[in-house]
Design brief:
Layout (H helix, E strand, L loop, with lengths): L1 H8 L3 E6 L5 E14 L2 E8 L4 E6 L3 E4 L16 H12 L13 H8 L2 H4 L2
Antiparallel strand pairs: 1-2, 1-5, 2-3, 3-4
């Protein structure tokens, strides 16, 4: 509840966070929104110590009270916190990135890669 309240009131949120490697840190974030993705809730916000947008799994954070000072809301990356979170989860999480060139028309590639439910439309 403290996380949601801090988003709504635009108050800086301080919390202890344990990442997916088990490493712990204390974070200070200007919370923008809570986003439900898959089976988890994520906090998307401006990390003041890292001077960048970050996402945090809510079940891995433990808010410190009281919350911090109020802040002016920033525009999220590309104006969409859900798209940012999707990018973080699917692109930002990979240790290795690659570019692949496929020498086939897009329709052939789509037919080969898209699940049958998506091709039905």
């Amino acid at each position: 509840m403290a996380t949601s309240d801090a988003c709504h009131r635009r108050e800086r949120l301080r919390f202890d966070y344990t990442d997916h490697h088990g490493e712990r840190s204390v974070r200070q974030v200007e919370p923008h929104a809570l986003v439900s993705w898959g089976r988890h809730w994520y906090l998307v916000g401006w990390d003041t110590d890292r001077d960048d947008w970050r996402s945090f799994r809510v079940d891995r954070l433990h808010p410190r009270v009281p919350t911090g000072p109020r802040f002016a809301r920033r525009d999220p990356p590309d104006g969409d916190v859900t798209a940012y979170l999707a990018w973080q989860l699917f692109t930002g999480a990979w240790a290795v990135r690659a570019t692949v060139t496929v020498h086939q028309p897009a329709a052939v590639v789509t037919e080969a890669l898209a699940p049958p439910a998506e091709r039905a439309g």
